[in-house]
Write a structure and sequence with these properties.
The protein has twelve helices and 13 strands. It has about 375 residues and is of the alpha/beta class. β6 (about 170-175), α6 (about 185-200) and β7 (about 205) form a beta-alpha-beta unit. α2 packs parallel to α10 (about 315-330) and α5 packs parallel to α6. It binds beta-D-glucopyranose. One of its GO terms (molecular function) is carbohydrate binding.
Length: about 375
């Protein structure tokens, strides 16, 4: 909520400036720093992505690279194989190649701090891409999607499907997962969802009967999110965790009504576990739980078409690449970065942020992914047949 108030304050401040026409200069951190036109065409820009093994980061990295190359910049694009040390080495390599801007989607938002500090000290602008870089002043900008909104969309899907607003009493059995403990985003996703789901735990309509995370009850708080996290967002880890939940609590035909999953890869792990342990549960019937997700991965498109997954949160990474591309061009031209519509605190500073809107996708609007140019009709047809 604090964030929303700040965003409002920022907008109000901007309106005041327009009205008075006397707000030259800018708030600390919002000005590009260098003189006008300070980054020449042909200069190097570094893009450091966390891993190749998750679909989105390949799209993210390659989209941005293509746009920057088209505009005449040299690009170093690296993928860190989910290893913080590798990511730090990748960023050092960018600094050694005189990168003027370094764009980082952190594997570990805290561990990457020293590397971006070196980049910043060498005069590069640092942009946190999708995931915030924590505990350092060396972050100039952040671009991402409204983080809590992701969890809000997931929780509202479950609330809707279970009929909770219509007064359904349950109790409904739900199991909950959060993302990687080293990713600052994961807490925000959970906060968005938990703020909506917790009241139903309070009233006893939702229960989580397993001991996952030492038990999720009405007293569970957002700060406990790491107890139900999945290291590195891994499908295999989620599958293992879900298998032990099923073994301990659902081995005798007990009904599982819903699973809050924050990412399509985790949803896939959950689905694998259900298929392995509870063959009596059938997609498309009421024996199968409502399962959420995020990223509109190809596997999720297919799972949604087959009624295995109910929902995913679509983040149009083409738009995120556009947003960051515009930031870089404005920085290069020595202009003030436009489109800042919020700020996030990284335990050190408030980082000026560009926040885009995520979209809810279910079977009903699955083809919106084609309309958005995110997936081709041909691929969509292959995945959904
Ligand atoms: C991103 C999500 C993604 C997750 C796993 C998060 O930081 O914001 O879009 O699903 O990482 O890669």
């Amino acid at each position: 909520m604090r964030f929303t108030k700040k965003a409002v304050a920022l907008l109000a401040g901007a309106a005041l400036c327009l009205g008075l026409g006397a707000c030259g200069g800018s708030r600390g951190g919002q000005q590009a720093g260098g003189e006008a036109g300070s980054i020449e065409k042909g200069a190097t820009i570094g893009i450091s992505m966390p891993t190749k093994s998750e679909e989105r980061w390949n799209k993210d990295g390659n989209n941005l690279k293509a746009k920057l190359e088209k505009a005449g910049y040299k690009v170093i694009l690296s993928f860190a194989d989910d290893k913080p040390a590798q990511q730090n080495a990748d960023i050092e390599n960018m600094v050694n190649n005189d990168a003027k801007v370094v764009v980082v989607a952190a594997k570990d938002g805290t561990a990457v701090g020293p590397a971006v500090e070196k980049a910043h000290d060498a005069g590069a602008k640092v942009i946190a891409y999708d995931r915030l870089i924590m505990n350092t002043e060396a972050v100039d900008y952040y671009a991402t999607f409204q983080l809590e909104q992701v969890g809000v969309l997931e929780a509202n899907y479950l609330i809707d499907k279970l009929g909770l607003k219509d007064g359904a009493k349950g109790p409904f059995n739900i199991e909950l997962f959060t993302g990687s403990p080293d990713d600052n985003n994961a807490k925000y996703f959970f906060k968005g969802a938990w703020d909506l789901l917790q009241p139903y735990f309070e009233s006893g309509v939702l229960v989580s009967p397993s001991n996952h995370g030492q038990g999720v009850t009405k007293d569970f708080t957002v700060d406990d999110w790491q107890a139900i996290s999945v290291q590195s967002w891994k499908t295999e880890q989620a599958q293992k965790d879900m298998e032990s939940i099923l073994d301990s609590t659902y081995a005798h035909g007990e009904k599982l009504d819903a699973v809050l999953s924050p990412y399509d890869g985790i949803s896939q792990g959950v689905i694998n576990a259900i298929e392995a342990k509870r063959p009596d549960m059938k997609p498309g019937t009421d024996t199968w739980p409502y399962i959420t997700g995020q990223d509109a991965m190809e596997i999720a498109v297919s799972n949604i078409a087959k009624d295995k997954q109910g929902e995913t949160v679509f983040k149009n990474v083409n738009e995120l690449a556009d947003a960051v591309y515009e930031m870089i061009i404005e920085i290069a031209e020595g202009k003030e970065v436009s489109g800042i519509n919020g700020e996030f605190n990284n335990n050190s500073i408030d980082v000026p942020s560009k926040l885009l809107d995520p979209q809810n996708i279910t079977k009903d609007n699955l083809s919106d992914l084609v309309k958005a140019g995110y997936i081709t009709q041909e691929r969509f047809d292959e995945l959904t047949k």
